[in-house]
Amino acid sequence: MRRLNRKKTLNLVRELDAFPKIPESYVETSASGGTVSLLAFTAMALLAILEFFVYRDTWMKYDYTVDKDFSSKLKINIDVTVAMKCQYVGADVLDLAETMVISSDGLVYEPVAFELSPQQRIWQRTLQLIQSRLQEEHALQDVLFKSAFKGAPTALPPREDTILWPPDACRIHGYLYVNKVAGNFHITVGKAIPHPRGHAHLAALVSHDSYNFSHRIDHLSFGEIIPGIINPLDGTEKIASDYNHMFQYFITVVPTKLDTYKISADTHQYSVTERERAINHAAGSHGVSGIFMKYDISSLMVTVTEQHMPLWKFLIRLCGIIGGIFSTTGMLHALVGFLFDIVCCRFKLGSYKPKSDALLDGHLNSHSALITENSKH
To answer: Is-contact 161 117, C-beta < 8 A?
Structure first.
């Protein structure tokens, strides 16, 4: 009974099969058909492999919303080397709310040599080369986002040698917490002093001969530090042509939420415009010598999310590739074969003649031969 039920079930399945079954004796094989089939299967395999690589890859999606967080503090990470001794320079922040942040809160003044060692110079040139490529190929920023925590550290490596002369520069590095409003971080002559009516530096105690605001920005970022992310000012080096010189950086900071498979962090991106000029009051170029980084906070927040193709979408695309190539090559093979038969076989001159016409021509030829023979007699 079980065997009978099993046979009935198989017969029922065969009857329900909607796909036509053509006996193998009805199928005509040919060399052209085999060649087309081989090419079709090769194209299927190649496109399927390429589609698999697309499925494995990820892409970054950018969403823009209004930043509603105004009460939190903004962290500024700084690593700047100025070609002046530490007792001659001072760094602080003054924002639009007239709030002054003294550098002693989180910045360290370290006497160093301004000239880099050979290993440090190689590091700086590599960083500058990466910066130039980032300006030309903006898509490289997505690669940096996806490779966060996997890239090499962007901090200046320590010297591999010992300097044989007294330190002639001051490295100012550390962090500051400021309000989320526009402000001005500056490094100028003299230490900053709090003043109830304004903002002042003790510049009178420093002679003009000691002025030299040639500087190198090894790192400048806003928010949380993400290893492997290169900021626009990292690796910048400026040499002052005059002792009384002003360098200005106009920075627009954009809050950014980064959510990838490697990291989830709240950071900030920024764009910068640079300007520099010599201070000459006689020529009408007024101002104060120093390095001024004027930043403004954008009201928009960018959410960067790493996305991946779903499995169901990959399977649908794979089926579309295989079915599309199979159907298209079959139709093209049939069309080319049909045109080939028409052009080369059926309308070729003298290659096809009806049988009745051939018999008629034979009768006419024999009849004309008999008439010719009778006329001779």
So the answer is: yes
Instruction: Name the H helices within the chain.
Output: 2-16, 31-56, 118-136, 140-146, 311-341, 355-376
pLDDT range class, residue 253, cuts 50, 70, 90: very high
> How far apart are the C-alpha atoms of 151 and 32, rounded to whole Å?
53
Two tokens, residue 222: 């806003």
Rg of the chain on CA atoms, in Å: 40
Q: How far apart are the first and last CA of the chain?
A: 95
**What DSSP letter does each residue of 59-81 carry, written as one string?**
EEEEEEEE----SSEEEEEEEEE
The phi-psi region of residue 290 (left if phi > 0; otherwise alpha if psi is between -120 and 50; otherwise beta) is left
Which whole-number Å values give the CA distances from 304 to 41, 60, 194, 259, 351, in the listed order? 40, 6, 40, 6, 71
CA–chain centroid gap for 19, Å, is 47
Domain boundaries, given as residue ranges, for the chain: 27-56+310-376, 68-298
pLDDT in tens, 30-63: 666 677 778 888 888 888 888 888 888 887 888 8
Question: Which residue's entry shows tokens 């399945």?
Answer: 13
pTM: 0.69
Q: Which residues contact 244 (CB under 8 A, 6 or more apart)?
A: 208, 211, 278, 279, 280, 289
User: C-alpha angle 368/370/372, rounded to 5°?
Assistant: 70
Please name the amino acid found at residue 269: Q
- Provide the sign of the torsion angle of the four alpha carbons 125, 128, 134, 140, taken in this order: positive
